[in-house]
Give the backbone structure.
Amino acid sequence: MTDDLVPLPELWVPEASQWLSSSAGRVALEGYSWMQAVHWVAGSGLYQPRRHRSSGLRAFNQTTVYIAQLLAELTPCRPGIEYLIRRTGLSRRIVNYHLAALRETGLLVYVVKGTRVSGGPAQASEFARVIPAEYDAALGIRTVLRDETAPAYTRAVTGIAEAGRKLMAELGRKAARKVRRPKTAPKASSKVSPVGAQEGPAGALEGADGAAETVLSEGSRCTPMGGDCSTSSSAAGTYPPPESKLASGASESSSRRKSKAKAGGRKAKVRRKLNVIGRRYQLGRELTQQVEWLRGCSVPRISWVARELADAGWTVTQVLAWLHLRGTAERVHRGSGLLAVLLAGAEKVLDTPVKRANAVAKWRGTQEAQRRHDIARVRAEHERYESDWQNPASSAVRNEVDGAVAQLKNLSRPVIQDLIDDSSGPSSASYEVGVEEFADIRAAALTELKVGVTSLITDTIHGCGYDEALRVYGDALMSRARRIDQIRRSSLTTLTYGA
């Protein structure tokens, strides 16, 4: 019966066919079905790259499955090399080897290939997760192209053969489990499948009991379910070192430890990942450093107050944005108590990362508007009170200028001299605010106040004093100017000046 079984062809996709437009597979609609195909490729033993090239991976191993698991979480699939290096702890060369293995097995194809422009940022490649045609043939999966005008890679699944259901269920259990990050790169096995064994329709060996067994050796463990990779053996029994070895012969992990050693010979401490308590204390320490009215407060107390936000994954920037939206008191007697009041219910209001990101964007927009307003105000004051005057080089001329300025400062205010004193003239009631001699200047001040400008009243206060300004403009205009200045100084509002 086994003589009638025809083995599946070798899995190898040349570089010219590693694009979505030229792919023979079909696009995976979600990551679960794609991971089923990944585990099938890992256990099939059909990928033997050393027959086509002498460098790179020796087989499809557990690290390749872990990287595929990371790619299954991305939408769209645009993994930066730096991101994969950070998540896997591997070198750039090894990460590129595993990506090449996924492309050469037909599981990953290019949509847009990344570029590197001199002087500019590198653009990451965008991939499409594809299920190889060999996988559909091995499991007896039937597909159909519903729209004949659509590309071939948009085929949809219509059914599966009865012989492939058992293996499909096994692959589903593997795909549902999370693959742990390998501590070291696994060694490729040199054992091959027994001579005379035939592959079944599902791409697996059939043992004596008739159950499907993957075409794997008993040596290496390339999948989390215990599957092994089948690779070619050398005649002399020796083979190149695994990918975790460097050119110097030392392992990558030992080289990394040596690079982290201190100059005095003592090894540097490895920074451990923060647990729940560590994240609370980190957030509390950052709040005491960045919030002015929390400086000097106890870090453990602030950490306890903000514990719910730390457990929800809030950052210090998001907490600052929330405090900006809530506002603060002018006088703070107990910082931890005020913080507890302001943070009450924050994790329920901003319960999603999108809401927190919007709050941070509004906070930064308000800060930018306030910064631009301060720059415009300082520039206006500089243009009003200063000019292009430069001190003369001669000391005699500077002394004369200083004397003239001192005389001008000692002069009485001309506006006050023109006004009739209340005690020497008629009754003070005749010179109350609203008399005709102040009508023009009050009208000009009112026009400026309507567009949010208080320069006329402010200049009068600086030049003549508050009492004379109150006498000229009246209590209503002075109160209005004071409110506009208070609003301008607030970080919660932004003034837009009219024409």
User: Anything to note?
Assistant: Confidence is low (pLDDT under 50) at residues 1-6, 185-241, 243-252, 412-434. Residues 353-385 form the longest helix (33 residues).
